[in-house]
Design a protein that fits this description.
Blueprint lengths: L8 E6 L4 E5 L7 H10 L6 H20 L2 E2 L8 E8 L2 E8 L6 E2 L9 E2 L17 E2 L2 H16 L28 H10 L6 H20 L4 H25 L1
Antiparallel strand pairs: 1-2, 3-6, 4-5, 7-8
C-alpha cells in the first residue's frame, strides 16, 4: 500500500541515448507550485495541512530508505498533489516523481558513507562540505527544507552550528506556530546522523509517531479541521487556476 505514494510507470521506451516513461496524468501540480500559489496570494498553508503532508513525506522517506534507496533530490518539485475521488469520498496525498539522482545502496558495501556533493542535485545538506561525510542526510535535510517552506513560504536558513548540533534554524519563526511539534521535527531532521539503516529508520518511525500523535491527540478536532482545510485548498487551487486563464 505504500506504493500509492509513488508515481508508477505504465510504459517505458528505452533508446541508446535516452529513455521515456509514460505515467498517469496529474492536473493538480506539485508541492512547490502549491507553496508558491499560497505565497503569491499572501497566504500560508494551514499547520494541520503541513502536518498531514509531513506525515506523507515521512512515509515516503521510510519506504525509500528501507529499500536501500537514497533519493538525492528530495525537493518540493518532486511531489505531486493528488486527490482521488471514490464513492463521493475524496482522498488527499502526495506522490513522488523523478528518480534520476537516486543512489542504490545495494551496489555499495555495507556501511558505505559518501563525501562531497551529488552531481546535478539542488539539495546541499550541511554534511556535503569538505572533510565531512553523509548518507541519509541528503534526504532528511531536503525534507526539513520542504517542511520549512510549507510553514513559512520561504527558504530555510541555518545559523552557525553550535558544537556538534545544527538545529539552529531561525528559531523565532517557530513562535508563529501553534503546534509545538515543529521544534522536534527540525531538531531531529537537521541532526540526523545514523549511518546504519536500523537506527536511522527507528528515528524516522519515532518522528512519524510524534507527528501523528500531534494530529490525532485532541479527540479528532484537528482531523476534522484537516478535511475542511484540504477541501479549501482544492477549491483555492481551482479558483486561482481559473483566474489565470481569464
Amino acid at each position: 500500500p505504500k506504493l500509492k505514494n509513488f508515481i508508477l510507470s505504465q510504459e517505458s521506451f528505452c533508446f541508446s541515448n535516452s529513455s521515456v516513461s509514460v505515467m498517469e496524468l496529474n492536473n493538480e501540480g506539485n508541492l512547490h507550485n502549491l507553496i508558491n500559489q499560497y505565497q503569491k496570494h499572501n497566504r500560508r498553508l494551514e499547520e494541520t495541512v503541513v502536518l498531514f503532508y509531513t506525515l506523507e513525506l515521512l512515509v515516503i522517506l521510510q519506504t525509500l530508505h528501507s529499500a536501500d534507496v537514497i533519493h538525492g533530490n528530495f525537493t518540493a518539485e518532486n511531489f505531486l498533489i493528488c486527490t482521488e475521488i471514490q464513492h463521493n469520498d475524496s482522498t488527499h496525498g502526495l506522490k513522488m516523481i523523478n528518480f534520476d539522482t537516486c543512489i542504490d545502496l545495494r551496489k555499495y558495501e555495507n556501511g558505505t558513507i559518501f563525501k562531497d556533493t551529488l552531481a546535478n542535485c539542488p539539495v546541499r545538506c550541511y554534511e556535503m562540505r569538505p572533510g565531512l561525510t553523509w548518507k541519509y542526510q541528503a534526504d532528511t535535510f531536503g525534507l526539513c527544507e520542504i517542511i520549512y517552506s510549507m510553514l513559512f513560504g520561504e527558504s530555510m536558513e541555518l545559523k552557525n552550528s553550535i558544537g556538534d548540533v545544527r538545529q539552529t534554524f531561525r528559531v523565532p519563526r517557530l513562535e508563529e506556530c501553534q503546534n509545538k511539534i515543529w521544534e522536534t521535527v527540525f531538531s531531529t531532521l537537521l541532526n540526523n546522523r545514523p549511518v546504519d539503516k536500523e537506527n536511522h529508520l527507528q528515528q524516522l518511525s519515532q518522528l512519524y509517531n510524534q507527528c501523528d500523535n500531534a494530529l490525532t491527540s485532541d479527540g479528532g478536532k484537528l482531523l476534522n479541521d484537516l478535511q475542511v482545510e484540504l477541501a479549501k485548498q482544492s477549491l483555492n487551487l481551482y479558483i486561482w487556476a481559473e483566474n489565470q486563464e481569464v
